[in-house]
Design brief:
With 367 residues, the protein is α+β, with helices and mostly antiparallel strands. It is 33% helix and 27% strand. It has helices at 4-17, 35-47, 59-68, 71-75, 79-86, 108-117, 119-130, 144-149, 154-164, 172-190, 275-282, 309-312; strands at residues 25-31, 51-57, 90-95, 135-140, 195-200, 203-208, 215-217, 227-230, 238-242, 247-249, 252-254, 258-262, 265-270, 291-297, 318-324, 339-345, 351-354, 357-361, 364-365.
Length: 367
């Protein structure tokens, strides 16, 4: 029997997150380990009148490709990938895995090359999204591998995921809308502001947000959500930050990341674990050394680190910065083949000063 929370999550994704309409073309992507949620989501798309194209991925085959493919094959773009970026009205992405470390030994230069080959398609997709031409959402199906990563049993992790998505409640949509109302006052206050200063034992970093827009994120794109975010002025970051949680990308765990910025650019970077991978990603392209996002996590229903960025970046009392591509709707102009979120806890003495005023202290807004 299907867990009723899985069916409720599927319904919330289709009806609320991307609001599938009759006649919409919908690309539904996911790994085979996420089939229970993929199936429920497929049914909901059909019930909504959408034309659903399921694209199932096998993790072992994907990793075999990255290890064995020639440069020509790494660079090749399938017609379906191109059509998805340029034509699909709706994109629903369901993450799952049976082994979070499956890609650990793949040469990071190969994954960087494949990412670069898709940078133009990513740019098209980001711009279509900003113009409202493509609606998209991303979520996760809980698996044993994710549970182990989070130091939980599968049952505990399932409870954690469904609680974070509000689908343990009878009306998750109402709860997401309420969170949006609560966050909007901070987004409104930030309109027209110019300067941000992050101060804590782990950061002394100044950013410009002049002319940029903060987005009120309430599970229409990421499920779960709970953050406000923008794209800093590209040449404005000045100072340093040490991220208090591991930065995880493509199954690589990079610990103790510390970055120093001058005129917006990362001029030095170090890590206590997997530093080589960090440095390789910074060489992906020029935009990889600049910030594409500055965000404040507001989901206080997520209080523990799980090793999964979809949840961890929303932890109430934290901020995150993303190296690489920014979201055009924020005003960001940074382009890159990567978007790598890194998290800093602000709950022990952290402050955010905006235009000389205290905006945030000890992980909470000041008003």
């Amino acid at each position: 029997m299907t867990d009723p929370r899985v069916a409720r999550l599927a319904r919330t994704l289709v009806e609320y997150s991307v609001a599938v309409q009759r006649g919409d073309t919908v690309i539904l992507t996911g790994e085979l380990s996420g089939l229970p949620l993929i199936r429920e989501t497929y049914k909901e798309v059909i019930r909504a009148g959408g034309h659903c194209i399921p694209v199932l991925v096998d993790e072992a085959m994907s990793n075999a490709f990255l290890r064995e493919a020639s440069d020509e094959q790494l660079d090749w773009i399938s017609p379906l990938e191109e059509w998805t970026a340029k034509e699909a009205k709706v994109l629903i992405m369901i993450r799952s895995t049976s082994n979070t470390r499956a890609a650990t030994n793949i040469d990071p230069r190969r994954t960087a090359r494949r990412a670069r080959s898709r940078s133009e398609l990513n740019k098209i997709r980001f711009m279509r999204s900003a113009r409202g031409e493509q609606r998209w959402t991303l979520t996760l199906f809980p698996t044993e591998a994710y549970a182990q990563e989070a130091d939980m049993s599968l049952e505990e992790f399932e409870d954690f995921v469904y609680k974070a998505c509000f689908v343990d409640q009878s009306d998750p949509v109402a709860l997401w809308r309420k969170l949006g109302e609560d966050q909007q006052k901070y987004v409104d206050w930030l309109k027209g502001k110019k300067h941000v200063h992050l101060r804590s034992a782990n950061a002394d970093l100044k950013l410009s947000i002049e002319g940029r827009t903060f987005i009120n994120s309430t599970a229409t794109r990421n499920m779960p959500s709970g953050e406000i975010f923008t794209g800093p002025v590209e040449d404005s970051a000045q100072g340093w930050v040490r991220f208090t949680y591991p930065a995880i990308r493509e199954g690589r765990v990079v610990e103790g990341v510390e970055l120093r910025f001058e005129r917006g650019r990362v001029v030095s970077a170090k890590a206590t674990k997997n530093e080589e991978y960090l440095l390789a990603q910074l060489e992906t392209d020029e935009g990889a050394r600049y910030l594409g996002e500055f965000a404040i996590g507001t989901n206080f229903g997520i209080q523990r680190f799980t090793g999964n960025i979809l949840f961890d970046e929303k932890i109430g009392g934290t901020v995150h910065l993303a190296l690489g591509c920014g979201y055009p709707e924020t005003g960001s102009r940074n382009e890159s083949a990567i978007h790598w979120d890194m998290i800093c806890d602000m709950r022990q003495g952290g402050e955010i000063i905006v235009d000389g005023e205290l905006f945030y202290r000890d992980g909470k807004f000041a008003f």
